[in-house]
Amino acid sequence: MASSKNKKRPQYISKGQRRNVALATCKAMRRDRNKSELDKILRIIAAWKKGKRTYVPAAFSSTGKREVAREIWGSFRKGGMVNKQEADVE
Protein backbone atom coordinates (compact mmCIF):
# COMPACT_ATOMS: atom_id res chain seq x y z
CA MET A 1 0.00 0.00 0.00
CA ALA A 2 1.25 3.39 -0.92
CA SER A 3 0.76 6.02 1.70
CA SER A 4 0.10 9.66 1.05
CA LYS A 5 2.43 12.43 2.11
CA ASN A 6 4.77 11.76 5.03
CA LYS A 7 3.48 14.08 7.75
CA LYS A 8 6.42 13.62 10.12
CA ARG A 9 9.00 15.30 7.86
CA PRO A 10 9.19 19.11 8.26
CA GLN A 11 8.44 21.29 5.25
CA TYR A 12 11.28 22.97 3.38
CA ILE A 13 11.78 26.61 4.37
CA SER A 14 13.74 28.89 2.08
CA LYS A 15 16.62 30.82 3.64
CA GLY A 16 15.96 33.83 1.39
CA GLN A 17 19.57 34.15 0.31
CA ARG A 18 19.10 35.21 -3.30
CA ARG A 19 16.93 37.64 -5.24
CA ASN A 20 14.03 36.27 -7.23
CA VAL A 21 14.01 39.33 -9.53
CA ALA A 22 17.04 40.85 -11.22
CA LEU A 23 18.34 44.10 -9.76
CA ALA A 24 18.22 45.81 -13.18
CA THR A 25 14.51 44.92 -13.47
CA CYS A 26 13.77 46.39 -10.03
CA LYS A 27 15.59 49.61 -10.90
CA ALA A 28 13.75 49.90 -14.23
CA MET A 29 10.38 49.46 -12.49
CA ARG A 30 11.30 52.14 -9.94
CA ARG A 31 12.35 54.56 -12.70
CA ASP A 32 9.07 54.02 -14.54
CA ARG A 33 7.08 54.51 -11.34
CA ASN A 34 8.65 57.90 -10.66
CA LYS A 35 8.30 59.30 -14.19
CA SER A 36 6.12 62.35 -13.53
CA GLU A 37 4.88 64.41 -10.61
CA LEU A 38 1.28 63.69 -11.64
CA ASP A 39 1.78 59.93 -11.29
CA LYS A 40 3.42 60.49 -7.92
CA ILE A 41 0.55 62.57 -6.50
CA LEU A 42 -2.04 60.15 -7.93
CA ARG A 43 -0.32 57.27 -6.09
CA ILE A 44 -0.32 59.33 -2.87
CA ILE A 45 -4.05 60.07 -3.23
CA ALA A 46 -4.84 56.40 -3.93
CA ALA A 47 -2.97 55.34 -0.79
CA TRP A 48 -4.71 58.08 1.25
CA LYS A 49 -8.09 56.81 0.04
CA LYS A 50 -7.17 53.33 1.33
CA GLY A 51 -6.48 54.84 4.76
CA LYS A 52 -2.70 54.43 4.66
CA ARG A 53 -0.34 56.90 6.30
CA THR A 54 1.10 58.82 3.35
CA TYR A 55 3.22 61.92 3.16
CA VAL A 56 2.55 64.83 0.84
CA PRO A 57 5.70 66.34 -0.70
CA ALA A 58 6.68 69.92 0.08
CA ALA A 59 5.56 71.17 -3.35
CA PHE A 60 1.95 70.19 -2.61
CA SER A 61 1.69 71.19 1.05
CA SER A 62 0.80 74.63 2.35
CA THR A 63 3.69 74.87 4.84
CA GLY A 64 6.46 74.09 2.36
CA LYS A 65 7.63 70.90 4.09
CA ARG A 66 6.59 67.24 3.97
CA GLU A 67 3.40 66.54 5.91
CA VAL A 68 1.07 63.63 6.61
CA ALA A 69 -1.77 63.60 4.06
CA ARG A 70 -4.41 62.89 6.72
CA GLU A 71 -3.51 66.11 8.57
CA ILE A 72 -3.81 68.19 5.39
CA TRP A 73 -6.78 66.54 3.68
CA GLY A 74 -8.52 64.91 6.65
CA SER A 75 -9.71 61.31 6.86
CA PHE A 76 -11.04 59.97 3.56
CA ARG A 77 -13.54 57.73 5.37
CA LYS A 78 -15.16 60.76 7.03
CA GLY A 79 -15.68 62.79 3.86
CA GLY A 80 -12.12 63.61 2.86
CA MET A 81 -11.03 66.89 1.35
CA VAL A 82 -14.53 68.39 1.13
CA ASN A 83 -15.10 68.15 4.89
CA LYS A 84 -11.66 69.55 5.71
CA GLN A 85 -12.06 72.58 3.41
CA GLU A 86 -15.54 73.39 4.71
CA ALA A 87 -14.24 73.25 8.29
CA ASP A 88 -11.45 75.72 7.43
CA VAL A 89 -13.93 78.19 5.90
CA GLU A 90 -16.19 78.35 8.98
What structural category characterises the helix and strand content? mainly alpha
Q: Termini distance?
A: 81 Å
Which value, in Å, is the CA radius of gyration?
A: 23 Å
Characterize the biggest β-sheet: 2 strands, antiparallel
Sequence of secondary-structure elements: HHEEHH
Brief characterization of the structure:
This protein has helices spanning 23-33, 37-49, 69-73, 81-89, and strands spanning 55-56, 67-68. Helices cover 42% and strands 4% of the residues. With 90 residues, the protein is mainly α.
Could you please describe the fold and organization of this structure?
This protein has about 90 residues and is mainly alpha-helical. It has helices spanning about 25-35, 35-50, 70-75, 80-90; strands spanning about 55, 65-70. Helices cover about 40% and strands about 5% of the residues. The protein has a two-stranded antiparallel sheet with strand order 1-2. The mean pLDDT is about 75.
What's the SSE blueprint?
Layout: H1 23-33, H2 37-49, E1 55-56, E2 67-68, H3 69-73, H4 81-89
Antiparallel strand pairs: 1-2
Please give a handful of descriptors for the protein shown.
single chain; 90 residues; mainly alpha; two-stranded antiparallel sheet
